[in-house]
Please model this.
Amino acid sequence: MTTVKREKIRFVLMQLLFGLCAIAFFFVIVSPGLSIKVFSLTSGVALTLIIMDIKKFKMHDAFWLCLALFFIGVCDLVWYKMFKIDNSPAINSYRAYLEVGKICIYGALSIFVFVNKSQLKVGNNKIHVLLAIALQLMILIYSGYQHLFLDNQRVTLSLAGGADATGAAYTIVFISFYIILVTQHSSSKWKEFFILGHFFVTFLILIATETRAAILAYPVIFFGLLVVKLYKEKHIPWKGVAVFLLALGSGAFMMKDSLIQRYHDLNNDIVAYDNANSVTSVGSRFAMWKTGLTAAKENYLWQSTDKRNEIITAIVQKDESLKGAVLLMNGHLHNEIVETLSLKGPSGLLLYIFFVISLAWYALRKLNSIILLAFLVSLIMFGFSGVMFYSKTTPIAWMLTLVMSIVFLEQNK
Model:
């Protein structure tokens, strides 16, 4: 095969890889299942590119991030193979790690190829802009239709019956950082007001999901981005700060009934937990964290979900005030650290820390992107009350956000 022909094939495959990721990202709002199917095709394309240039691939800027994702994915698949029981009451837990394991491997391979071949320009900024606009419109129309016309109590997008409103909120926040990233790199003199308008709309939608973690985390992270901008420019952009506060206040006022209700629910759940009743939304989380950490004490290597649940059940039999943990233990334990320690032990926690450090280092030292770091912060913050490395709907959303953000930043270095 001549060098020219090989280069043409390589270029076509890179465009195909980018196209598959873009299509998968486009459908993540309306059909996460289709997104996963499309994204799975990237593994074959990425492997073909790696094999074609196996001697030319080297340790690049994102090498450690790819390694972390790849090891997490492989460990999840091995864990699934070792412990999965077909008739287990917790079968969905095993399947969840099978799905997220595959997604992590797809992501690791795609990022590895994109960064290693960043000199081969894939897509262009116009495609990213169109994709960002399309995603924004889909989120706005879909959530508006559910909240205003269907009169749904909580906006779930396409995740009703699955990850529901919580998964929808996480997805919206992840995609928001991609939209902010693309808008920030535009040449429009109105880009800052577009970003503030985007924040206002996104905050309203998050309130409509009634997901406490997202409602609290998103404005805090966004305010952090404003502070960094203020520090870099050495002056206070009063108009931007005023619009931010106005958007925040207006959003809170417009959805005050929902916010007040969630606040009262939170207080009631905490009072109930203090009175030895953990059979509430917040109380069950506290109970799961406490029993999950106890179940992790002797887990030096790995253990099955069934084994963990046996330990939790035994704990609850001795202390009925923690029985809220039993209600949801067949899924995950609503905390990234507790869930990881209870199943994968110290090795799983070390891999998670490896991922966080490698992505933070890559975002700050190699890409100089505070927005990509903000995306990572959202992953960590949501991990306090949820599990980001679990199932498929939430992982496919943050993985595609990560992949497309890296492609955009690498092409705009």
